[in-house]
Design brief:
6 strands, mainly alpha, two-stranded parallel ribbon, Glycosyltransferase, about 600 residues, globular, single chain, 27 helices
């Protein structure tokens, strides 16, 4: 029975038992169940009560445990712990491959629960004693890698199994597994093995490290190289450093250290980035529609640079064009967040700002109506019952397409609807409203000056004394909001013809990012599941809009790209639609830079 089939069977059992209550184990019922699977596995050959060959009855034993799975989940943990202990001991038995596979699959499903894997973490040294059982258990651990929620106990167990005193074969198997691990701590464990007295362990650890992203750990590798005396290990160090950096300094640790201290740029392969984006796009196309994130997915697919089929695009276009923006008895608001409407505006402006100009104008009016009297945007919905910006001919003047934002002279005028009287707003939503209005300006819509002025005032008023921002203007500055606030303020200044880089508030925000720069997962307050992907896209916008390639000594694109390439999952995603979109937009450097243009009949504005 394959793991997938087993999971489907378990799911079917659980579904069926919605109608029939599962009876939890008590001491008596569990004793009966344990007696049955134990006799099947261990005693059947002695008295042959089941009339099966040894390999068949052992397989029946494991499948019988599987059939009781829902009862284990509804019972006290002690019954599952006892059964897991039984399964772990059987891993070392000299039985057929089919039975071994059944045991591993059964354990994989059990140990996907945090309380069960934690029990194994605390008891595996006592329960798993045979070398063959340990090797079988390592295969179970490999099957648990997708379960990031149980990362800590898995890492602890692997650390134990690779320590001195364990059989060499077990240690080597763990090292090989660490080289395939999606967990960042895997590199730390391997680094700790570089000084192992067994040269084969050191060499294997280096080989496993070469399969991971070790850019952030280059200083540690150089330090290890400087004290390593074994020539063959030194040579492997130099190979790993060269493959990671593209540099050639051999075993000269001093040369490596000098080079690293001059702030090198990580080497990023354009081909690797292209492959990564394509995999991400494939994932998005297969993902379900009708979700909260479909506006973001639509925009990302357009900006991805990957050719898309007409059928895929038409489905998204139809959905975007039929979404309700008005609040009336016949047309209720479907895109009820500024996020969604802003992204829809960005998508149509990028796709064809002439063909979809009417929809862009409608989205623009929505965004203008939802700007609060304090200049920012919040979660409320504007009370739009009709559009006031309808051109009698059916279409405003067609704009001239551009490849970057411009302060052109000839614009399509737009009337300001009444503003949202609610004064509540936050930095996160406001940054997307500003992005949406920038897309409107790119479609040649003349956004009134007071909109940019009041938005600027809002961002400036919410800026902390250290130069950063928080989502709701209360509390310390956080990476996501500082990057988002910086880019938003730059846009507001640009469309008022104000100096950007000389602006004091801009300078303070840049200084904050220089001082607190990170690519790793920042513990911000904006939905932690979206960090660092939400943050990286905001960082890309800020860097591009300001023409900054480095914050301090940190070159944000190569560092961010390397991080994202190391975090992409086997299905092409970064853990869901939203994260995947942010990752692709960063890798594509999707933000258009500012550009000042001289247009007919006017001067430089």
């Amino acid at each position: 029975m394959s793991l997938l089939l087993f999971i489907l069977l378990v799911g079917g059992m659980l579904f069926a038992q919605k109608e029939e209550t599962v009876k939890p184990f008590n001491p008596s019922t569990y004793t009966e169940v344990k007696s049955r699977y134990s006799r099947l596995y261990d005693e059947g050959s002695a008295d042959k009560p089941f009339g099966l060959r040894p390999q068949d009855r052992r397989k029946e034993s494991i499948q019988f445990i599987q059939s009781q799975y829902s009862r284990f989940l509804s019972s006290e943990d002690k019954y599952a712990f006892d059964t897991i202990g039984f399964l772990l001991k059987t891993l070392g038995d000299d039985n057929e491959d089919k039975v071994k596979r059944e045991i591993r699959q059964c354990l994989t499903v059990f140990l996907s629960y945090s309380s069960y894997i934690e029990w194994v973490n605390q008891n595996h040294k006592r329960v798993i004693t045979k070398e063959s059982a340990k090797l079988g258990f390592i295969e179970v651990l490999a099957g648990l890698f997708r379960q990031r929620a149980i990362e800590r106990p898995i890492i602890t167990i692997m650390t134990d199994l690779v320590s001195k005193g364990e059989p060499v074969k077990v240690r080597m198997s763990i090292i090989e597994l660490l080289g395939k691990s999606p967990f960042s701590q895997a590199a730390d464990i391997l680094l700790g093995l570089l000084k192992d007295s067994d040269v084969n362990i050191s060499k294997s650890a280096l080989e496993a490290l070469s399969k991971l992203d070790v850019w952030e750990r280059i200083p540690e590798l150089i330090k290890h190289l400087s004290v390593e005396t074994r020539k063959e290990v030194q040579e492997q160090f130099s190979i790993l450093l060269s493959e990671t950096t593209g540099q050639r300094f051999g075993v000269d640790a001093a040369a490596w250290r000098k080079w690293w201290n001059t702030n090198p740029t990580p080497v990023i392969s354009p081909n690797a980035v292209s492959i990564s984006i394509n995999k991400g796009v494939d994932y998005l196309i297969k993902s379900s529609r009708g979700s909260y994130s479909e506006d973001l997915v639509f925009y990302t697919l357009i900006k991805s640079g990957v050719p898309l089929s007409e059928s895929v695009m038409n489905q998204y276009i139809e959905t975007m064009l039929t979404k309700g923006l008005l609040n009336s008895p016949t047309k209720t608001v479907q895109s009820n967040y500024t996020y969604n409407v802003a992204l829809m505006t960005m998508a149509f402006s990028e796709l064809d700002s002439v063909k979809y100009l009417e929809r862009i104008v409608q989205c623009t009016e929505f965004l203008l109506a939802n700007q609060s009297v304090r200049g920012g945007w919040g979660y409320s919905v504007p009370d739009l019952t009709r559009f006031i910006n309808i051109v009698p001919t059916g279409k405003p003047i067609s704009p001239t397409p551009t490849t970057s934002s411009t302060r052109a002279i000839r614009k399509i005028p737009i009337k300001l609807p009444p503003r949202n009287k609610e004064g509540v707003w936050d930095t996160s939503i406001s940054q997307y409203a500003v992005l949406g209005l920038r897309a409107s300006a790119d479609a040649n819509i003349d956004i009134p000056a007071e909109v940019w002025r009041d938005a600027e005032k809002a961002f400036v008023s919410a800026q902390n004394s250290d130069g950063g921002w928080n989502c709701c203007h209360v509390g310390e500055s956080v990476h996501t909001m500082v990057a988002g606030g910086l880019g938003s303020l730059a846009i507001c200044l640009f469309y008022q013809n104000k100096d950007i880089k000389g602006n004091l508030n801009i300078k303070k925000a840049i200084e904050w990012l220089e001082k607190n720069f990170t690519i790793a997962d920042p513990s911000d307050d904006i939905g932690k599941s979206y960090s660092p992907y939400y943050y990286l896209y905001a960082l890309e916008r800020a860097g591009t809009l300001l023409g900054i390639e480095s914050f301090g000594k940190n070159q944000w694109y190569p560092l961010g790209a390397r991080y994202l390439l190391s975090k992409q999952e086997s299905n092409g995603s970064w853990g869901g639609d939203i994260n995947t979109c942010f990752a692709i937009l960063f890798l594509r450097r999707a933000t258009k830079p500012f550009k000042i243009e001289i247009t007919p009949g006017g001067g430089k504005k």
